[in-house]
Amino acid sequence: MMWYRPDVALPTGSGEGAGAGAGAGTGAGKGARAHLQVRGLSAGYGPVQVLRNVTLEARPGLTVILGPNGAGKTTLLRALNGLIPRMGEVLLDRDELPEKTHEIVRAGVALVAEGRQLFAQMTVTENLELGGWLVDKAERARRIEQAFADFPKLRERAQQLAGTMSGGEQQMVAVARAMMSAPRLLMLDEPSLGLAPRMVDELLAIARRIADAGTTVLMVEQNVKKALAVADRGYVLERGQIVASGDARLLARSTVVREAYLGADSADTTDARDAVARRKAQPVSAAAARRATPSSTR
Length: 298
Ligand SMILES: Nc1ncnc2c1ncn2[C@@H]1O[C@H](COP(=O)(O)OP(=O)(O)O)[C@@H](O)[C@H]1O
Ligand SMILES: [Mg+2]
Prior knowledge:
Structural class: alpha/beta
Number of domains: 2
Shape: globular
CATH topology of the largest domain: Rossmann fold
Bound molecules: adenosine-5'-diphosphate, magnesium ion
């Protein structure tokens, strides 16, 4: 795998702090296990403020951002990628993240945008080449070869125009293109959007493998159940604010996520007192607990 860099020790489990290599393949030349810290982030479009005081982190592993349409998930990734201005503090391994997109890419951050944004009239190989603009021709060729090793399906389609591929294949090209910059932090905006269930599973498994191999992954997903099943940690964003966060397994069992995102039939308790006790036991924020009370409105 491309992300199975020879200089990075493969993790033995999903735990943190396993051997961080020198990250020779990255543009940033730092340890591969990146830690993103976002504090008090605000961003929006002109006078419209979408994100308000968002604080979160993406530790080594896979962090998922959940939330309804229009919550500001894409806006968050766009702000982190320098596509729109931001206020607040963003640190990547304790260094302030630059503001301009090309500098952010050099710092080791790659974004697979919502809707993939491939060049439809270019071949798979040409799309991958564009993702490798940071490195010289020889290294670019080496990374393309690696991408084909990671995604055998893409090797078969090397000369196919990206626009003629299925949604799942296009998403794979988009992920492979982002990995061409050998990022320390990979951000994925709804990689499973519009895909058939089997392709959803395949894309989420790819995200998991990338995280296991040492690239920190921050992923936005609408597919709550499946996303929490592959993630280490999660956040719920609603109306531009974080309303719940925690370990992915606990979050999947939390009242706020079950009631709002997984549907009533996934609840395994009907007793209100039991629900309250569970809510207290879970590391969801006070705002989330308030939201989850019967009197709250959505
Ligand atoms: N280019 C834009 N200009 C103005 N408002 C926008 C723009 N893009 C998104 N918005 C608004 O920002 C809010 C958050 O959108 P978005 O981040 O795309 O949400 P999500 O990805 O969670 O569905 C929405 O109210 C949306 O209408
Ligand atoms: Mg979005």
